[in-house]
């Protein structure tokens, strides 16, 4: 398997700790290792993984080449600009196909937490087997543990596991639901969280792309022709003509050639400060302090404060993030609004904070 890690995200939900040149995937949110390095290390442990690629933006490529270990510098691929996941994955597949024809390709986010390596390896082994046997697009779904409204869902056919490998036919994809619908999904027992991890044969992916996203396929074919003549050729003019689209909207929701693996490992997309709080050990008052801080007469609070002392008194359910140049205080039920704050800082041209 040739693995591609998508590492172009901005990580705006983790402001002020994350910045444009130091986004979530390059942060040490869980432990002392960056999320991206954890992802690389996780994949390197799997014997069937032959090589690892990282695809990112030009602004992060040099930092990734310098900081991330065990990935060849030439395997850090650069998108001319962010175009969402479908063009990103398509460009990575193109680069792999130029070196390795008809291989298995795995696609992974750069900033997710996986607990249970053997179960993770088993899921990828099953996905590779089904990708070869069925010539299908394979995605990995996570059994939901609560009615999450921030995740997409995959409805699977419970009677379709012919090989008894936890691989099922897909009925439909559902986008982030309101809480009442998420409760119904959880109760039904035939919905999984969409983890954003994919496995397929490159030729299968290319054929599906040609059928369901022909414009993207044609532009990637133009890029392929140019790179075959000169591996360092400029592709920005072709890339500018590509429409931004997600792999879910553009391909997975249209294809009828999909299976989903029901994962057995523990998973989190670590999508917000609340997720970090949920994963962290807590004291008797259910408070979490990372760094130097103190909480008096308060419960269910989270402090992230490196390099300076932070104290809060008499409040509950707060997130307080302290950096050298900014302080964020937000109720835990409003952390999704951090991305709106970042957009406001952009409009106010506060680039020094971004």
Characterize the structure shown.
The chain is of the alpha/beta class and 354 residues long. The two termini are 37 Å apart. It has helices at 35-44, 58-67, 85-99, 117-134, 179-188, 202-212, 214-229, 236-239, 247-252, 273-279, 338-347, and strands at residues 2-6, 51-57, 76-79, 104-109, 113-115, 137-142, 153-156, 167-174, 191-201, 258-262, 266-268, 288-296, 302-313, 318-322, 327-331. It has a five-stranded mixed β-barrel. The protein has a four-stranded mixed beta sheet with strand order 12-13-14-15. It folds into two domains: 2-268, Spore Coat Polysaccharide Biosynthesis Protein SpsA, Chain A; 273-353, no CATH class. The chain is globular and about 60 Å long. Strand 2, helix 2 and strand 3 (76-79) form a beta-alpha-beta unit. The relative contact order is 0.14. 33% of the residues lie in helices and 26% in strands. Helix 3 (85-99) packs across helix 6, helix 3 (85-99) packs parallel to helix 7 (214-229) and helix 6 (202-212) packs across helix 7 (214-229). The longest helix has 18 residues, at 117-134.
Provide a brief overview of the structure:
The protein is an alpha/beta fold. The chain has 11 helices and 15 strands.
- Bin the strand percentage: 25-35%
Class from helix and strand fractions: alpha/beta
Number of domains: 2
Strand order of the largest sheet: 6-9-7-8-10
Number of strands: 15
Q: What's the helical proportion of residues?
A: 25-40%
The helix/strand order is EHEHEHEEHEEEHEHHHHEEHEEEEH
* Nearest-integer average pLDDT: 93
| CATH fold descriptor of the largest domain | Spore Coat Polysaccharide Biosynthesis Protein SpsA, Chain A
- The CATH architecture category of the largest domain equals Alpha-Beta Complex
- CATH homologous superfamily identity of the largest domain: Spore Coat Polysaccharide Biosynthesis Protein SpsA, Chain A
Distance N terminus to C terminus? 37 Å
Low-confidence stretches: none
What does the overall shape look like?
globular
Q: Which class of the largest domain in CATH terms?
A: Alpha Beta
Q: What about the largest sheet? A: 5 strands, mixed, barrel
Total DSSP helices: 11
Q: How large, in whole angstroms, is the Cα Rg?
A: 21 Å
């Amino acid at each position: 398997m040739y693995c591609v890690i998508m590492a172009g995200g901005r990580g705006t939900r983790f402001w002020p700790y994350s910045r444009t040149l130091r986004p979530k995937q390059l942060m040490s949110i869980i432990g002392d290792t960056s999320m991206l390095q954890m992802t690389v290390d996780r994949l390197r442990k799997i014997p069937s993984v032959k090589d690892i690629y990282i695809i990112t933006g030009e602004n992060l490529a040099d930092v990734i080449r310098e900081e991330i270990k065990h990935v060849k510098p030439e395997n850090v691929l650069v998108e001319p600009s962010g175009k969402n996941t479908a063009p990103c994955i398509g460009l990575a597949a193109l680069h792999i196909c130029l070196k390795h024809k008809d291989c298995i390709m795995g696609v992974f986010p750069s900033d997710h937490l996986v607990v249970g390596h053997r179960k993770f390896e088993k899921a990828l082994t099953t996905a590779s087997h089904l990708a070869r046997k069925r010539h299908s697009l394979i995605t990995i779904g996570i059994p939901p543990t609560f009615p999450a409204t921030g995740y997409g869902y995959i409805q699977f056919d419970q009677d379709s596991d012919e090989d008894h490998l936890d691989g099922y036919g897909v009925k439909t994809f559902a986008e982030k639901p309101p809480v009442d619908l998420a409760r119904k999904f959880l109760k039904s027992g035939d919905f999984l969280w969409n983890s954003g991890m994919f496995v397929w044969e490159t030729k299968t992916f290319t054929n599906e792309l040609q059928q369901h996203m022909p414009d993207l396929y044609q532009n990637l074919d133009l890029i392929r022709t140019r790179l075959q003549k000169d591996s360092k050729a400029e592709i920005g003019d072709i890339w500018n003509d590509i429409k931004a689209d997600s792999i879910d909207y553009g391909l997975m929701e249209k294809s009828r050639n999909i299976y989903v693996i029901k994962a057995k490992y523990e998973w989190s997309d670590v999508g917000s400060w609340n997720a970090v709080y949920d994963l962290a050990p807590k004291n008797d008052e259910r408070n979490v302090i990372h760094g130097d801080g103190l909480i008096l007469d308060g419960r269910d609070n989270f402090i992230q404060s490196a390099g300076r002392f932070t104290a809060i008194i008499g409040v509950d359910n707060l997130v307080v993030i302290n950096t050298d140049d900014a302080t964020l205080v937000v109720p835990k039920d409003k952390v999704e609004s951090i991305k709106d704050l970042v957009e406001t800082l952009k409009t106010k041209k506060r680039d020094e904070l971004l």
